Amino acid sequence: AAGIEVLSEDFANLADAPGWVRINRSIPPGAPWCQGAPDIFPAQAGSPGAYAAASCRSAAHGVGRVDNSLITPTLTLSGPTTLSFFTSRERVDGFDDLLEVRFGRGSDIDAAAFDTLLASIGGATDFPAQWQPWHLDLTVDGTGRFAFRYVGDAARLSHVGLDTVRVVTHLPEPTSRLLLADGLGVLGLLRRHERH
Fold this sequence. Notes:
single chain; 10 strands
């Protein structure tokens, strides 16, 4: 299938990333997703601070319950779709960083809209402490958004990064569509012959 890239974001400047939405539902709310901190770790690609970051300070003063989302623009998808990205975290032991990757149909940004959990990175398993690629597949026809949701007890969280986000949707090759149409035509002829 031919791939069409519908999103490409390297976070050279998160504040100016077109269509991206930052929603911090932490209690009490602190910092939303922000520009990467090269003094903690450098970006996967580009300049050292060219990544999106979230930390325990998503809750005010690093105390409370973190629920901090970074949401893609609304995308138009056509069938099999691949979301790819890189994640990393601060190289400090003893933390339980958790990043949920979710999908929601349409353009809604309410938490309930993101009802499809595609992956949970970290939490019960170790969050990668070096840049690691991820590739998640789903099939969607229509519009939708992806959400990167950083969650947990602020006291158990450190600093995570997100970089090089790509979304590719795969349209069937024209020859595949023609073959399918030809096959359906032949099937119709055979059925007509069976009636006589």
